[in-house]
Amino acid sequence: MRKVKLSSAYFGKEEADAVAQVLTTQVVNMGQEVKLFEEELREFFGRNDAQVTCVHSCTAALQLSVQASDISIGDEVLVPTFTFVSTFQAVRANGAVPVPCDVDLDDGFIDLNDAESRLTGKTKAIIPVLFAGCSSKIDKVYQFAKAHNLKVIEDAAHCFGDENIPNRDGIFCFSFDPIKNISCGDGGCVLTTHTEITERLKDMRLLGVIGDTERRFQGKRSWNSDVKELGWRLHMNNIAATIGRAQLAKFSEIKMLRQRNANMYLTGLASIPEIQLFPINSKTAVPHIFPIIVKNGRRDELQKYLADAGIETGIQYKPNHLLSYFDMGYALPNAEKLYSEILSLPVHPLVSEDDMVYIISNIQSFFRNT
Ligand SMILES: *Cc1c(COP(=O)(O)O)cnc(C)c1O
Questions:
Q1: Which residues constitute the domain of residue 260?
Q2: Is residue 279 part of a domain?
Q3: Position 3 in a domain
Q4: 266 C-alpha vs ligand 1 centroid, how far in Å?
């Protein structure tokens, strides 16, 4: 029987050769590869006025961005409950409180009316998550933030390669984890036009040692530098960076395959009344996940039907306010409804056109025959 995995990396000989090459140099810590990857990413994002800081993961990118935004113990940060737990932990890692907010039912985006009702004197920031690559309401977040004097940090983990994403001044956190649009094994980056944020990130990722990034890029060590704030070992190393560079070099292929798969779903599932699709911009989005909403309480049944046909699906995500650590004692009805109806379908580059036809015809036959 055919087997289709929900998610996968997309590595080949290019990545293997790049890693072998770096290993033979014996220089695997943060150095030239990271410097080059940061430069190539900046060019890729098309923002000459922005800087890129590569770190160990998107979780690290978020955590350090929160710290660099001067958010600390006791401060509150508005976060949509419908996200990977990473967004919540990144806030908590700073001693701040992630305040779970409800989301809109059509796209999983943070519900700003709900967010407004959770403002207190301690609210310092908002972290919109561009869930499944849906970003059409982002301008409203910046207006909201301006009205309430909040910082904005964008969790753009689902958006790498969407040309609309860096078209504003902000702080964007991207993920290069094993299954994201490009992967370093593990990795992430912050893209921002705020130079004062970048300056702090560059030291913070290397234990707060002032100027360490520049010296490492020159192949030097920092023997007598000062440290002025809390820092972490959350930098990216040369092995991860060289994998990322190889992935970036073939991104047009990755983008084409992910978009082809997403467009096949958009066409193939459009006529099924029990399925609601997310409003992704099918021209610019490079979908990392492809969730659908299954109505009439049939999500679990469909998931089992597909599993029996060898098709793996997922439920992204369990809302964070339902996790013991982040439960604030209130319900968030839209997020809970989405959680009961959402289903992620395979969309990664290793899902072939044949696989796509197979998945879509299985979904169609489920609704036709059962
Ligand atoms: C993957 C993901 C993250 C975390 O990325 P890592 O690189 O795995 O730390 C954060 N937020 C969202 C929405 C994600 O999907």
A1: 251-369
A2: yes
A3: no
A4: 25
**Bridging pattern class, strands 342-345 and 151-152:** unpaired
- Of ligand 1's listed atoms, the one at least distance from the Cα of 155 is 11
Give residue 249 CA to ligand 1 midpoint distance, Å: 22
Q: Does 222 have pLDDT greater than 90?
A: no
Looking at the fold, whether 110 and 232 belong to one and the same domain comes out as yes
For residue 173, the SS3 value is strand
8 is a domain residue: no
Ligand 1 site, residue 58, Cβ cutoff 6 A = yes
How many domains, in total, are found in the chain?
Answer: 2
User: With 90 as the cut, is the pLDDT of residue 72 above it?
Assistant: yes
Give yes or no: residues 264 and 297 share one domain.
Answer: yes
Q: How deeply is 146 buried, as exposed, middle or buried, from its count of CB atoms within 10 A (0-12, 13-18, 19+)? A: exposed
How far apart are the CA of 173 and the centre of ligand 1, in A?
Answer: 9
| pLDDT tens readout for residues 238-288 | 999 999 999 999 999 999 999 999 999 999 999 999 999 999 998 999 999
Cα separation, 338 vs 341, in Å, equals 5
Residue nearest to atom 5 of ligand 1 (CA): 58
pLDDT in tens, 278-336: 999 989 999 999 999 999 999 999 999 999 999 999 999 999 999 999 999 999 999 99
